[in-house]
Amino acid sequence: MVNSQCDAHYQMDDLLEIMKTLRAPGGCPWDREQTHQSIRQNMLEEAYEAADAIDHSDMENLKEELGDVLLQVVFHARMAQEAGQFTFEDVVDGVCRKLVYRHPHVFGAVEAGDAQGALSTWDAQKRQEKGQRTAADAMDSVARAMPALMRAEKIQSKARKAGFDWEEVSPALDKLSEEVGELRQAIQEHSNVEEELGDLLFAAVKVGRFAGVDSETALQKACEKFIRRFRRVEQLSQCPLTQLDVPELERLWREAKNEER
After folding, report:
1. What fold, for 152-213?
2. Residues in CB range of 117: below 8 A, 6 or more apart
3. How many helices (H) and strands (E) does the chain have?
4. Which pTM was predicted?
5. Whether pLDDT at 206 is above 90
6. What is the Cβ-side half-sphere exposure of residue 189, based on CA atoms within 13 angstroms?
């Protein structure tokens, strides 16, 4: 039975019981009709909101957002339990077993002298656990639902661990320039534009890796910069932007850009 007193300090069991009640006959009509697929996007959104709280060092908000992420875990686990597939306890058991198995340098006899050694041990245990016999198997296991730039970085990182990479950034920059040329040609010929654009983005991620820059973060910051400058262009303009020609728009953009220097 859930403690409904206002001053109650709820526990994990209370959350599980609340979700059970919401999904039960007589519970919440909306909660009862949800499926794994219908709330899939919610899981992604809550994870991103938690990441945003981390980015802003907002601990109070992070506390709330972590609760929202946990809610999604409990929601999916409850639906699975109702279908006779697994329970929340099974989820907890699985992650505990995984942590113990992938930390033999803590719970076993393996030695890991530093963080890099610990990470290498984790990766080796994960490959064995997942039955990944080759680097291609490891690449293929990277979630396709992940943001494409982030997925590209992970795939490239696995290729590097397998010895498939350049030693320094210059060839990566040359490859980036090559892909720009191929995209330009594809646009002119009206063929393979999507493929060549993808190759260009993949090459850009590789340059970012050599430079020690996370491509997903870099693009997010570029988006924020564009919004900031666009807002300033609107402020500088004496009329709606749709009434201005391209040279005037470019002049205003340069002015907004110069103000930031």
Report:
1. Helix Hairpins (1.10.287)
2. 105, 111
3. 13, 0
4. 0.70
5. yes
6. 11
**Where in the chain are the domains?**
12-89, 152-213, 222-259
Q: Which pair of tokens denotes residue 248?
A: 């005037």
Burial-class residue 138 by CB neighbours within 10 Å (0-12, 13-18, 19+): buried
The reply to whether domains 12-89 and 152-213 share a CATH topology is yes
Sign of torsion over alpha carbons 248, 252, 257, 261? positive
Class of domain 12-89 (CATH, top level): mainly alpha
Question: In terms of DSSP H, where are the helices of 141-214?
Answer: 148-161, 169-189, 193-211
Query: Who contacts 73 (Cβ-Cβ below 8 Å, separation ≥6)?
Result: 88, 91
pLDDT at 2: 63
Q: Give the Cα-Cα-Cα angle 252, 258, 261 (nearest 5 degrees).
A: 155
Nearest to 102 by CA among 73, 127, 122: 122
- Statement: residue 164 has pLDDT above 80: yes
Only one residue has tokens 């030693």, namely 167
Specify whether the CB–CB gap between 146 and 154 falls below 8 A. Answer: yes
